[in-house]
Amino acid sequence: RKQSSAEKRRLAYSEGLTKGAVRVNACAEEILRSNTKIMSLLPVGVIKVAGDFSKGDIIEIHDEKGARIGFGIAEYGAERARELMGKKRVRHLIHYDHMFISA
């Protein structure tokens, strides 16, 4: 069992504790929901950043239509996330170990 399992369980029940949200494109959603690939959320897959969150805050992850698909801990704040949105080869917004995606 991985060390992050307790944190993932905590994230699963973090509704109401979030400071913001990101909306991801269909490709990013498919990768995040994949059972075969383990991936962090990269800014290239982010199409919208909502709220005013800071590094370490819990944020919601939404699909293209706005439905919540999970939660994660932001690696940097909303302002930086907006700057990096859609960019390739930049640091992940949410690391896999700090993310929970609903089934």
Structure commentary:
A hairpin with a 5-residue loop joins strand 3 and strand 4. The chain is globular and about 30 Å long. Helices cover 22% and strands 24% of the residues. With 103 residues, it is α+β, with helices and mostly antiparallel strands. The protein starts with a helix and ends with a strand. It has 3 helices and 5 strands; from the N terminus they run αβαβββαβ. The mean pLDDT is 93. Strands 2-1-3-4-5 form a 5-stranded mixed β-sheet, sandwiched between helices.
Write the layout of secondary structure elements.
Layout: H1 5-12, E1 20-24, H2 26-33, E2 46-51, E3 58-62, E4 68-73, H3 78-84, E5 99-101
Parallel strand pairs: 1-3
Antiparallel strand pairs: 1-2, 3-4, 4-5
> Count the helices. How many?
3
Query: Biggest sheet: strands, sense, closure?
Result: 5 strands, mixed
Order of helices and strands: HEHEEEHE
Q: What is the number of E strands?
A: 5
Structural class: alpha+beta
Strand order, largest beta sheet: 2-1-3-4-5
Radius of gyration over C-alpha positions, nearest whole angstrom:
12 Å
Shape label? globular
N- to C-terminal distance: 19 Å
Share of helical residues:
10-25%
Mean pLDDT: 93
Determine the strand fraction and express it as a percent band.
15-25%
Supply the key terms:
single chain; 103 residues; alpha+beta; 5-stranded mixed β-sheet; 3 helices; 5 strands; 24% strand; globular
